[in-house]
């Protein structure tokens, strides 16, 4: 995670007379995000009910116990790799990702504390999040844990990879694996027909990893108060689902947990 | 050659009227035949939407802040608005990611300063609308400006935010080795509320040097003008809110360029009223 500088040092760095901005010039103009003027305006109540329908555990009391289970074997956990992109191999040739078949990976994923800890522990008392839309559902991601937002350009499909992995996209000379937000997160059972899905507009890079998640739209940035989030106990299941922001009534994603899972070839409802 | 003034409109608290102040001052300056460039540093890009600017990210100020040569990039991003004498460099949502991506990069706080150098001969005023938090964006804006306009909602909680803002300015003055003169603009003053009166009195006592002695009143015509995407001086020239901003502008101009204030057209009652409890005059709603 990024180091937080004291304000004095922060200002000294930013206002240095001799800038060290060498790599900035490598940022091509075409890599920036293109915002859509007309934002998705689905009623929040609908989204909230939708979220509860999909994730009924959100309606249950939250147990903010963040100690690692005694049985957890930390050393056995896969820690997100930040250098080489690894696209999970399909174990079998299968046209759809079906959670009843463990075709993507047979790795047993234990959703527990990684070296990054849980989102609840990582964020400050108030933190900014960006709200995006994936298949009509609003998803929030903490800004401090994003590696950037880019307009989707050419994605190279790689044969034999899981369907929820759209392929590899070149951003500033680095290849990023792009997760199909709809197939991975919203509709892992593949119930939504391809033809009703609109094309993705953006890819949101997840922390410092080589993974990004594709989304249809960007809605807003919101300031979240820790106390105004219904936190989940991530040790139960779905570690990527950190909680729900009450005011916006949208899901809050744990980006490190997402990276952890996709690196193991797991979709959102697998564990 | 023009003598360009760069003003930053900033407050670390949100919802105090920063964008309304930027729009209103820009409208009045344009009315005075000054050429104005607006820079929208807020990821919400409200100012850009107000002027129906292209808010796509690859057309926004973000590109200047990450450019190796910001002086080259900024002129390419200037957009005309539908209002005479007002141009804009739009904001975009990915400005919100700047702190995370480049927030600790050496010299990052001077990118806007360098970018603006390219246009100082083209404009009389550059107004920068800030996001409500101290980060790379606000530091860029404060480093680039000669004057800071601080809208403050006249209510108790907002005054606490002002204390933080003034502390930040003091620290930045030391780091930048330059004075950052500021004008505190009391906004959303509601004369019906005793709390407003008390908060205003506190402002007068705690910030006697920086405070503009008038107030921007609560005025529904701000909202009406906003819905028409038009500065209030054009939509409702007789609105009390417009008259208040006219006087505020004169005060700020006087602070920045003593003796160079142009006579404002069609506005009477331009004397600041010191007594906020006086019910006479437009400033006191």
TrEMBL record, chain A:
This is Chemotaxis protein CheW. Residues 126-264 form the CheW-like domain. InterPro entries: CheW-like_dom_sf, CheW-lke_dom. Transmembrane segments: none annotated. It comes from the Bacteria. One of its GO terms (biological process) is signal transduction.
Automatic annotation (TrEMBL), chain B:
InterPro entries: AAA_dom, DNA_Partitioning_ATPase, P-loop_NTPase. Residues 6-180 form the AAA domain. It holds the Pfam family AAA_31. Residues 261-285 are annotated as: Disordered. PANTHER family: P-LOOP CONTAINING NUCLEOSIDE TRIPHOSPHATE HYDROLASE, PLASMID PARTITIONING PROTEIN-RELATED. To B.subtilis soj. This is ParA family protein. It comes from Opacimonas viscosa.
């Amino acid at each position: 995670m990024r180091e937080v500088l004291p304000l004095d040092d922060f200002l000294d760095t930013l206002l240095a007379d001799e800038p060290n901005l060498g790599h900035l010039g490598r940022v091509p103009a075409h890599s920036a995000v293109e915002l859509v003027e007309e934002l998705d305006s689905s009623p929040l109540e609908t989204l909230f009910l939708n979220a509860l329908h999909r994730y009924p555990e959100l309606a249950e009391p939250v147990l903010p116990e963040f100690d690692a289970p005694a049985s957890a074997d930390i050393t056995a956990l896969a820690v997100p790799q930040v250098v080489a992109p690894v696209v999970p191999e399909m174990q079998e040739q299968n046209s759809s990702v079906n959670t009843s078949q463990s075709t993507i990976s047979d790795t047993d994923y234990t959703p527990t504390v990684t070296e990054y800890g849980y989102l609840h522990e990582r964020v400050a008392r108030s933190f900014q999040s960006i709200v995006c839309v994936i298949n009509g559902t609003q998803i929030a991601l903490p800004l401090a844990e994003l590696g950037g937002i880019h307009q989707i350009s050419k994605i190279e499909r790689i044969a034999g990879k899981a369907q929820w992995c759209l392929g590899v996209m070149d951003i500033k000379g680095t290849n990023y694996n792009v997760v199909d937000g709809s197939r991975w997160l919203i509709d892992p059972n593949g119930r939504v027909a391809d033809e009703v899905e609109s094309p993705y507009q953006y890819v949101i890079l997840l922390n410092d990893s080589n993974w990004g998640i594709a989304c249809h739209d960007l809605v807003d940035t919101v300031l979240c108060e820790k106390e105004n989030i219904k936190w989940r106990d991530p040790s139960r299941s779905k570690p990527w689902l950190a909680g729900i922001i009450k005011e916006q009534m949208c899901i809050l994603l744990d980006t490190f947990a997402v990276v952890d899972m996709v690196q193991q070839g797991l979709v959102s409802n697998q564990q | 050659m023009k003598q360009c003034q760069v003003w930053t409109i900033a407050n670390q608290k949100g919802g105090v009227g920063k964008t309304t102040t930027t729009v209103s001052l820009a409208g009045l300056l344009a009315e005075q035949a000054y050429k104005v460039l607006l820079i929208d540093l807020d990821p919400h890009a409200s100012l850009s939407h107000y002027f129906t600017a292209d808010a796509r990210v690859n057309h926004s100020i973000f590109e200047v802040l990450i450019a190796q040569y910001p002086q080259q990039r900024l002129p390419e991003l200037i957009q005309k608005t539908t209002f005479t004498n007002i141009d804009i460099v739009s904001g975009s949502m990915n400005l919100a990611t700047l702190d995370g991506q480049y927030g600790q990069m050496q010299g990052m706080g001077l990118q806007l300063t360098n970018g603006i150098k390219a246009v100082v001969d083209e404009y009389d005023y550059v107004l920068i609308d800030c996001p409500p938090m101290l980060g790379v964006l606000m530091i860029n804006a404060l480093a680039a400006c000669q004057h800071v306009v601080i809208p403050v909602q006249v209510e108790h909680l907002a005054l606490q935010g002002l204390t933080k803002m003034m502390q930040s300015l003091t620290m930045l003055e030391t780091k930048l080795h330059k004075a950052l003169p500021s004008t505190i603009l009391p906004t959303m003053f509601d004369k019906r509320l005793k709390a407003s009166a008390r908060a205003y009195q506190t402002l007068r006592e705690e910030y006697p040097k920086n405070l503009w002695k008038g107030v921007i009143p609560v005025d529904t015509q701000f909202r009406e003008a906003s819905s028409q995407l038009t500065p209030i001086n054009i939509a409702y020239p007789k609105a009390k809110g417009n008259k208040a901003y006219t006087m505020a502008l004169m005060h700020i101009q006087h602070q920045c360029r003593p003796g160079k204030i142009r006579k404002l057209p069609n506005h009477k009652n331009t004397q600041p009223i010191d007594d906020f409890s006086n019910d006479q005059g437009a400033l006191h709603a």
